[in-house]
Input
Amino acid sequence: MKESKAMEDQKISMSVYFIHLLFAVYFIVLTAERIQSIVRSVRDPDVLLLGDGFNCYTYLITFVSLAVSLIYLIVSNGNVFVGIFTRSARVHGSIQMGRLCIAAGLILVSGMVHTEYTVASIQFGAYGALIVAMIMQTARKHRQSGKQILLWLSVAFLTAFSMAIPVMYRSNIAHAGLFHVLEAITALVLVAMFTGMLYKVFCKDATNLFYIVPMLTAVALDTVLIVMRSREEINWFVLVSLIATCVLFLIGRLWDRASSRNR
Output
């Protein structure tokens, strides 16, 4: 009984509390934004949710992503929302970061499709909370790392990589159907790769995230999409993010080689 009471009185560190809080903010804000988009679309007679292939996919994947991620999150990590109101070690000790990262990736899929009434600024607020959580976790691991500069380069690379994941937008180019299929595949593949690296940040050693496969995959898929739609519109945000990702990847690989030789 005394041990249980002592556990109740124990408080987790402020850094851990804020990391969990930022994840909760990410889920709450992104869920709210996605739901408002769906509700407003349903209420708008001019929006046909299942009117064509593009709408069928974007709205269905949004429904599925939200439902699966939230059910998974509540079942596996419901205390992440309780933890907003307390620093109790008992509450926060039950939060499993690995499953939290998986849930973050699952709900991110819903944000990678453009539905009617999408509010991009609110979505960016949610993503910003997740990025700040990554930075705080990196700061916590700073002293333990034998390659501190590489550790920070890794989180910078992952941030740029996340921004290079293209949102699925409607296109009216000649081969729009093929383009939309490639958009969907690109978003799903890159979100899965991002989730894997996010898991590394919070559950493993994220000192070196400069893996060749995610980098080449992002370059190949993003480039195809940018080129296919270049005459209609150039996605400058993805293009700039992809260039930044490539630059950080090269810097990270070169720094890793140089630091290894100097040992």
